[in-house]
Write a structure and sequence with these properties.
With 279 residues, this protein is mainly alpha-helical. It has a single domain (2-275), classed as Farnesyl Diphosphate Synthase (Orthogonal Bundle), CATH 1.10.600. The chain is 76% helix and 0% strand. The chain contains 13 helices and no strands. It has helices at residues 2-20, 22-29, 36-55, 61-78, 84-96, 100-112, 122-145, 149-173, 175-181, 197-219, 223-244, 248-251, 260-275. α4 packs across α5.
């Protein structure tokens, strides 16, 4: 029975999420149970694509990513894949009618990262963030609204802003590895060999605008998804505030993170705030 394989596929996506991201794993646990598997499935898909680009050094990344892309759309069309991650993802895409353009935009951003020593200009930066983060927020939103097209369009710009904020924080958090190990400079018009405090503050000001807009959207989410998304939001906001407090030289030398203990404390805080209607 295919249902047995589908259940195995969902477990593979869940294991992938928990192996790669404690932050999102904590957040997903606070979603309504009906959303657990579909969000794990989305994360598993994007994580595998990202792993090809950032982890498969010494292999033909372009060829592997192109094959992954083809297999993805074949699985969506056929309704099945022997790749458990793609099988669970296609189930979500077909069930929640996720627009295929979002998947194309995501894969395009992954392909942008294949270029060695890539320095992004403003247009490329915006296009990359759209495909690598904003569309993921929109995929998740498709799940959360459960077919309510009006609510989807209402929350559309807020989901994009929240995804953008998360990605820009990732850029700051991983700036050392991206620059020194992968030769990437995401922030446009920035020379990281002469990165200044004023440039850091300008980036942080831009991120705050995205965070503020994203929070407005969280408050309008259905109850089954609000707490889980809010937890991801406060994790990233806490990371953002920690990065803001540090000199730019520090983030160029080490990866800033939030401890698992602090994440648990933040999760409890979010739960209390939600219980008393403060979100």
């Amino acid at each position: 029975m295919k249902s047995k394989f589908d259940n195995l596929s969902k477990k593979c996506s869940e294991l992938t999420t928990k192996s790669y991201s404690t932050s999102f794993s904590f957040g997903i646990k606070m979603l309504s149970k009906k959303f657990h598997s579909p969000i794990y499935s989305i994360y598993g898909f994007v994580r595998f694509a990202d792993e090809i680009v950032d982890g498969f050094h010494g292999y033909n990344k372009s060829k592997i990513l192109n094959r992954f892309e083809k297999n993805c759309f074949d699985s969506i069309e056929e309704g099945v894949s022997m790749n458990p991650i793609l099988n669970s993802f296609q189930n979500v895409v077909n069930k929640y009618e996720i627009d295929h353009i979002l998947i194309h935009q995501f894969i395009h951003s992954m392909k942008m990262d294949l270029e060695v020593n890539k320095i992004y200009d403003q247009k490329e930066y915006e296009k990359y963030i759209l495909g690598s983060a904003e569309v993921i927020g929109l995929m998740c939103l498709k799940v959360f609204v459960e077919g309510d097209k009006n609510l989807y369009m209402k929350l559309y710009p807020y989901a994009k802003s929240l995804g953008s904020a998360f990605q820009k924080i990732n850029f700051l958090r991983d700036i050392r590895a991206d620059y020194k190990d992968l030769g990437r400079t995401y922030f446009p018009n920035i020379d990281l060999s002469n990165f200044t405090t004023s440039q850091k503050k300008e980036i942080e000001s831009d991120i705050k605008k995205d965070f503020d807009k994203g929070y407005l959207g969280i408050k309008m989410l259905p109850e089954g998804s609000k707490l889980g998304v809010f937890i991801a939001y406060i994790y990233y906001l806490n990371l953002f505030n920690k990065i803001k407090s540090l000199d730019f030289k520090v983030i160029l030398e080490k990866r800033i993170r939030i401890s698992n203990f602090k994440k648990i404390v933040l999760m409890i805080k979010a739960f209390v705030l939600n219980k008393f209607g403060a979100i």
